């Protein structure tokens, strides 16, 4: 894995989650973006993201202005198999709505549905259960 992508509209949340990963000694590029659209641009190497490594793990918020996490997943499903094969999508949310968890379970690219904040335990669970090498 060359990168972890954090997609969350809250800058403080992205900062905190990046700090958690750095404290765990994760030695890969950690990219945070503040919108689902930016996340798609990153995955497609558009704009300022032409020279960044592709992520092995994507932590995705659901409730964002503009394009929601759900809308991101619809677009993500249209991306190449190559992107799907190398990235593990984990929904990282504050939602306690069981409908959200059930909906996520029906989307094959979503490997995990976990609650914020990101913790070392959540990160290592995602990495270890999905054979992501960090």
UniProtKB/TrEMBL annotation:
Span of domain Response regulatory: 3-131
GO terms under biological process: phosphorelay signal transduction system
SUPFAM superfamilies linked: CheY-like
Keywords recorded for this protein, A-Z: Phosphoprotein
Positions of post-translational 4-aspartylphosphate modification: 61
InterPro entries tied to this protein: CheY-like_superfamily, Sig_transdc_resp-reg_receiver, TCS_response_regulator
Pfam families: Response_reg
Protein name: Response regulator
Organism annotation: Marivirga salinarum
């Amino acid at each position: 894995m060359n990168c972890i992508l954090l997609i969350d509209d809250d800058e403080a949340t992205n900062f905190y989650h990046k700090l958690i990963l750095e404290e765990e000694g994760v030695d890969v590029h950690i990219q945070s973006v503040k919108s689902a659209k930016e996340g798609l641009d990153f995955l497609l190497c558009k704009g300022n993201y032409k020279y960044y490594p592709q992520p092995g793990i994507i932590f995705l918020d659901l409730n964002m202005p503009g394009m929601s996490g759900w809308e991101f997943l619809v677009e993500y499903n249209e991306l190449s198999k190559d992107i799907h094969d190398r990235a593990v999508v984990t929904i990282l949310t504050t939602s306690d709505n069981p409908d959200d968890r059930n909906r996520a379970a029906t989307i094959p690219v979503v490997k995990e549905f976990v609650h914020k904040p990101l913790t070392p335990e959540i990160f290592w669970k995602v990495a270890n259960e999905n054979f992501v090498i960090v």
